[in-house]
Amino acid sequence: MDYYSDKSAKVGANTTIGYNSFIGKDVQIGDGCKIGVGVVIHEGTKVGSNIRIDDNAVLGKYPMKAANSATTKDQELPVLTVGDNCIIGTNVVLYRGAKIGKKVLIADLSSVRENVEIGDFTIIGRGVTVENFCKIGSYCKLETNVYITAYSEVEDRVFVAPCVATSNDNYIGRTEERFKHFKGVTIKKGARIGVGAVILPGMVVNEDALVAAGALLTKDAKAKKIVAGVPAKEFRDVPSEQFLENQNW
């Protein structure tokens, strides 16, 4: 055997494990998985069936808490769970306390923190970070280098273009008052965010709204409206043929 597997770990039929991988105590891995080279799966992690985990991915990592961290908490975390038929890319880090649905793709170099839930059929693109205490819905697409700040919610069928940034701290790290007001963003069902947009703390992008590329959202985006500019202002209605309800999905 050219990898390490704790004697308490359970590995399903027809699962292959690459060179120099580490399978920790009480890990459960389903049938038909393909685990790459140098993969680390920490204690208790539950991996479903028919999952591909690429080289050097880390699953079930415990969070690190800095002495002055505002969002990372000392807590007992449930084990990481990964649903059936997922694809986990190279150098992905999935933290303990996350729950990944079925048929999710998490691309190379992405990170999903503790206390995060990701729904079925969602795509987490290359280099995406989803911070702690977030919920990502089903059939979402978060493209390359998207940053989802802590305490955010992204509902079903949301599209977020590359390099979108979100924030949860209007005080930008100064004064004790900030601890009372941490609030992530909310992106409602079917909303879309254009490339390079910035969403400020507490903002809501309502159903089927479209935030244009490069926009700075300082006020909530109304449902079925396009907002654009710095700061973003209402531009026009989203064309009806683009409404989620008209996509025959």
Please provide a written account of the structure.
- The protein is mostly beta strands.
- The protein has strands spanning 4-5, 10-11, 16-17, 22-23, 28-29, 34-35, 40-41, 46-47, 52-53, 58-61, 81-82, 87-88, 93-95, 99-100, 105-106, 111-112, 116-118, 123-124, 129-130, 134-136, 141-142, 147-148, 153-154, 159-160, 165-166, 186-187, 192-193, 198-199, 204-205, 210-211, 216-217, 225-228, 233-237.
- The strands form four sheets. Strands 3-6-9-12-15-18-21-24-27-30-32-33 form a twelve-stranded mixed β-sheet, with no helix packed on it. The chain has a ten-stranded parallel β-sheet with strand order 2-5-8-11-14-17-20-23-26-29, with no helix packed on it.
- It is globular.
- The model has no long low-confidence stretch (mean pLDDT 96).
